[in-house]
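Service request form, structural biology core

Requester: graduate student, group of Dr. S.
Request type: structure prediction, single chain
Budget code: on file
Notes: please return the result as structure tokens.

Sequence provided:
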Amino acid sequence: MASEEELFASVDALLNEEPHLPPPAERARLREAAGITQARLATALKTTTQSVKNWENGRSEPKSPRLEAYQRLLNGWAAKYPAHGAPAVTPAPAPALSPEPVAETFTGPAAPEAPAVVEAPVVQAESATSRRPANKRAAPVADSRFPHGPLAVLDGDGSAYGVGGIVLDCPARTVPELVEWTLRESGLGAAKLNRYGKDSDPLIVLTAAAAVKLGLPQRLEGHEQRRSLRLPEDHPVVKQVVKAKWQLTQRGFGPWARIYRKAQGRERQCVQLAILSWDALDERSWPGVSEMEPADIARVLSVYATRVITPRGSTAVSGLELMTALRPPTKAVQDPATGNWVSGYNPGSLGTEPMDPAPPEATPEHPVVVDSGWSGGFLNEEAYQWVRSVDLLTDEECTLPFTVGLDLNTAFLAAAARLVVGLSAPDHFHAPKFNPKIPGSWLVDLSPIELDPRLPSPFTPTGERPTGPAWYQTHTVAYAQELGYDVHPIEAYLRRETGAYLDPWHDRLKTAYVDTLADLGVTRDLDDRAFLAAMERHKDVDPALAAVLSAIKATVKGGVGKLRERPQGKSYKEGERWPALQRPTWRPDIRAAVISKARVNMHRKLGNMAKMTGLFPLAVLSDCVVYPSPGESPLDFLPYAASGKPQPGGFRLGPTPGLAKLEGVQSMLWAVDLMEKGYNPARHIKGGDAVLDEGE
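Core staff response, request fulfilled:
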């Protein structure tokens, strides 16, 4: 006879199946019966009219969270407008169509009636508490288990500001009381992003006043970097947490503190805290947010949580956590011997165990390098930092009056699309035949390749020509082959099991980026001139959403950078294993693959631009390229066909990741003068954006 655990596992497997939509023709019938146009439906679901057309003719299917929202809407219409001959059914109450982002309204499948819970008192936010009046609508119900959204911002008077302008009354006076209230009364949390994943733990953001009220210091002072500071173990608040039989993670009680108890059965007991006055929200990633009023902070973080993930730490940490949330390492599998459901490997994920890299993929201080005495060199797949020599400037270029900087929108995110990476441990090969479909690291001599010196070399981040054999990621070697060079690897470290691990990560962040830009008035239907005008003013349209956009971009770069997080702290000794190495997501080879593909994509565009326009760049820094120009706009030199459409292959303007936007304009004479002094005009225009953050 089956056990209760086996039956629950089988039922959960059914519950976790993807929602089933009616046939495409029925979808169209229901929409027409409701009198809703495809354009209006597209607006409600925050997508394009063409996408709705594709859903209704069977060419494509929506993805989560639109999938669940669309299914809920169709179910409601089906109850109201049954097919001919079918009995009408009284529909369950459902939210009305709204121009608000559907991602904020539906983040999970339609749920049955909510179980009885003790709800926290709710009041509407007063507009006087915020420089920007709070939304007066009732909070959208995304999941019956989490009626008040993913997070709340707690102020010193006990008001906890949540999504949609709601305000919860929090009576907690200590941190343990706050944790208990959050888990039992607040109604906060978020549904899992993958059927095999876990629900997101609720996040409570503390203002300075709230922190002091709970017995925490207003500022966390010390000689270490701010993100490394922690409360000492003998601090009264830490003692309170321990006495109440709660635990802190190894990160301790810092700006981002996780407080938990071991799960009881299937119930997780964990709350994430973020303390604003301890610099939890880095100004570089969240510009201006920490200075906003609590209701506005809640709005910024709730939009990010709905479109990306509930913040778990810095944007770099959240970027890495998003990878795991979308590709959980395990799933329920049936043991063929016993028939029981057990935890097993989830295909396409990185699994549960950390994996050592090949020596050339590691960092010099890594144990695989130190213990083996490796001296064979390392991968140097980094973003461009290149300036063309003044000697290679032509007289014609020097007479052009301007330099224009073009920045590729989230270039590293674009590089992650359909990127095949290794999922298994590396195997060592001598004199292998090059295969562009196998991810790995190849030792090959690319120095004989002759390229136009007015372009940076595609094989080095400095843009200088290689001087001999070196280690390269597969995309770099494949590009050498694309340029007509016959490559002969000397040796290689390759992976037999492969997959597009980053695809769901790319898709979710791309959607978040494009949707947020659209909310700021930068939409895909704009022509190039209108696009540049919209980009010029988009940060002033809504500072809160502009901060969300900045955080999304930082999530991309930080997440990629954290795949190769280096050791931190003065006490570290070379050869020791540092905490990041215990993560399955410590994968410098995946980071190298993303950067290699991004740099190759950039060089391909540079070459195509030279062929189409005769223009060569002055400098390239990361995802920003600087060109000489006859005018102040990229429209003055970008290649367009006679029809007025952009020529394919070169740089194109637009809001989609991988397309370009105007980053800056300077006087050409000014730029040349500074270049003669060794100054990088790209860095001036795009300062500090080249390094992929490897820290928290």
